[in-house]
Amino acid sequence: MTRTGTPPRRTLRVLLAGGALALALTSCGAPTAEEAAAPGPGGGAAAETGPHASHAPSGGPAGAASGQVPSSHVHGVGVNPADGLVYVATHDGLFRFDATGPVRVGGVNDLMGFTVAGPDHFYASGHPGPGSDLPNPLGLVESTDAGATWQPLSRQRESDFHTLTASDAGVLGFDGTLRASPDGETWTELPMPAAPFSLAVSPDGSTVLGTTEDGPLRSQDAGRTWERVAAAPLLMLVDWADGATVVGLTPDGRTAVSADAGLTWELRGEVGGRPQALSASGEGDDLSVVAVGDAMVLTSADGGRTY
């Protein structure tokens, strides 16, 4: 999650000048066993999706060019506060969307987990691609140059984090076990009642939401204890927009927004099809959403009501 303030609203004007961002994606392949257990309509299986991804600038991203994402699997989406552009983490590496469309950033690695921690500062996990000298699995890797290069931090050849989220307090990841790290190097195991499909942590690190096939779980003590959110719809993806506002996507692509840190939710517009990745920022009239739906990357500048 991005923790460096909100970029200027000029990004929205750049985006809307070309209309809503709609980027065609190639279809996803067969899901893994973990992905097949993800929450689907009515509690069933859902399509493969990306993990929690970090915040978009207020009003939406600057990268408004349309085009196909050159990968069959999208695992995450985030916006880099250093340039205001959308970054998409995929089975075939990281892609930045600028005025010319998608541009590969760095090597061809399968980025199963991905989150933006600050300007040009990313965390990821997954598997090395052809020609990569990174270990398999990657464990937690870090980039401080917007994905151009990655440095192993910890748990190399041990962890493939399929969902990652970051806050001012550190990093949370799930590799079959929920793990927390203040520095990306030392880890503490945390209990969780069910395997999360995605994780999202509040900016200060105190409140965590995790989506499961039985509904979202919520922790108010940084992941040490959990409760089910009875008033929430079934959610596949969640992201914190600010300290109190959370955006979620249901398995059938409806947008849900909470103004009280995930306790109660309002259903809004639809992204269309099954969601794959999500990023949110701002609050109230300035709530902005970037969502990867079925074959599209979409943005909403009105809090998820229209895309």
Shape: globular
The overall pLDDT average reads: 81
- First-to-last CA distance: 22 Å
Q: Could you give the order of strands across the largest sheet?
A: 1-2-3-4
Q: So, the CATH homologous superfamily?
A: TolB, C-terminal domain
Low-pLDDT runs: 1-38, 40-67
The arrangement of helices and strands along the chain is HHEEEEEEEEEEEEEEEEEEEEEEE
CATH class: Mainly Beta
Number of strands: 23
Count of folded domains: 1
Helix amount: under 10%
Radius of gyration over alpha carbons?
17 Å
> What about the largest sheet?
4 strands, antiparallel
Structural class: mainly beta
CATH architectural arrangement: 6 Propeller
Strand content range: 35-45%
CATH fold naming: Neuraminidase
Please give the structural blueprint.
Layout lengths: L9 H8 L15 H4 L37 E7 L4 E6 L2 E6 L2 E5 L4 E9 L2 E7 L12 E4 L7 E4 L8 E5 L2 E5 L3 E4 L6 E3 L7 E4 L6 E4 L5 E3 L7 E2 L8 E4 L5 E4 L4 E5 L7 E5 L6 E5 L6 E6 L2 E5 L7
Antiparallel strand pairs: 1-2, 2-3, 3-4, 5-6, 6-7, 7-8, 9-10, 10-11, 11-12, 13-14, 14-15, 15-16, 17-18, 18-19, 19-20, 21-22, 22-23
Plain-language structure description:
- The protein has 307 residues and is mainly beta.
- The protein has a single domain, classed as Neuraminidase (6 Propeller), CATH 2.120.10.30.
- It contains two helices and 23 strands.
- It has helices at 10-17, 33-36; strands at 74-80, 85-90, 93-98, 101-105, 110-118, 121-127, 140-143, 151-154, 163-167, 170-174, 178-181, 188-190, 198-201, 208-211, 217-219, 227-228, 237-240, 246-249, 254-258, 266-270, 277-281, 288-293, 296-300.
- The strands form six sheets. The chain has a four-stranded antiparallel sheet, with no helix packed on it.
- The chain starts with 9 loop residues before the first helix and ends in a 7-residue tail after the last strand.
